[in-house]
Amino acid sequence: MLRLSGVHTFYGRIEALRGVDLTVEEGEIVTLIGANGAGKSTLLMTICGNPRARRGEVRFEGRDITQMPTHDIVKLGIAQSPEGRRIFPRMSVIENLKMGAQNFGLAHFDEDLDRIFRLFPILKDRQSQRGGTLSGGQQQMLAIARALMSRPRLLLLDEPSLGLAPLVVKQIFETIREINQRQRVTVLLVEQNAYHALRLAHRGYVLVNGRISMSGSGAELLANPEVRAAYLEGGHV
């Protein structure tokens, strides 16, 4: 479904991604783990065209999207829930969800809203509440729900557990599994909580200083001594 081949991304003269090769097959949950500053968020943003890859290629369902405008990439079926949630704090929950549905109009809004409220019942209870007054976990649910309102086939999730209480983290990861299995949405997950991410994922990649250092199934990476030392036992790369 998604293939990055030799992708190099820069911020000015700083090279953030250094020849990244990565694939995501339809129906998978693929996770990308790595330390702060490794380039994980940059990789997701490069897929969406901002910033653009300076060298290399990004293909979605066989189509080259490397130089495509971001709004056209969204229309192809890719949506992102960004790091830090970035909801519209002064808008209500419903208004935030309408923003997510804008690329396809509101013809299916009620149908999609019912689906979202089954997935996140708390958002139904809070639908008239301003986004900025929600708890951190509820804001994260809203950010994911807003992305799902665009009916994506590929969902990019950037640090969905960041700053959340353990019980809420567990709920978020269970929801990601449900989105993948029941709604048949393919997921590329960037996450610092390597243990939960690798347990959830079919496959994973480790990103170190803008380069993929290793890959494998979630179980293989969980059992890898280098991964355990760097990301699961308090160590550092």
If you had to describe this structure to a student in words, what would you say it looks like?
The structure is a single chain. This protein has 237 residues and is of the alpha/beta class. The chain folds into two domains: 2-77 and 152-232, 3-Layer(aba) Sandwich (Rossmann fold); 87-151, no CATH class. It has ten helices and ten strands. The protein has helices at residues 40-47, 70-76, 93-100, 109-119, 121-125, 136-148, 166-181, 194-200, 218-223, 225-232; strands spanning 2-11, 14-24, 29-33, 55-60, 63-64, 78-81, 154-158, 186-190, 203-208, 211-217. A six-stranded mixed β-sheet has the order 6-7-8-3-9-10, sandwiched between helices. A four-stranded antiparallel β-sheet has the order 2-1-4-5, with helices on one face. The longest helix is centred in the last third of the chain and has 16 residues, at 166-181. The radius of gyration is 17 Å and the shape is globular.
Secondary structure blueprint with pairings:
Blueprint: E1 2-11, E2 14-24, E3 29-33, H1 40-47, E4 55-60, E5 63-64, H2 70-76, E6 78-81, H3 93-100, H4 109-119, H5 121-125, H6 136-148, E7 154-158, H7 166-181, E8 186-190, H8 194-200, E9 203-208, E10 211-217, H9 218-223, H10 225-232
Parallel strand pairs: 3-8, 3-9, 6-7, 7-8
Antiparallel strand pairs: 1-2, 1-4, 4-5, 9-10
Helix pairs in contact: 3-6
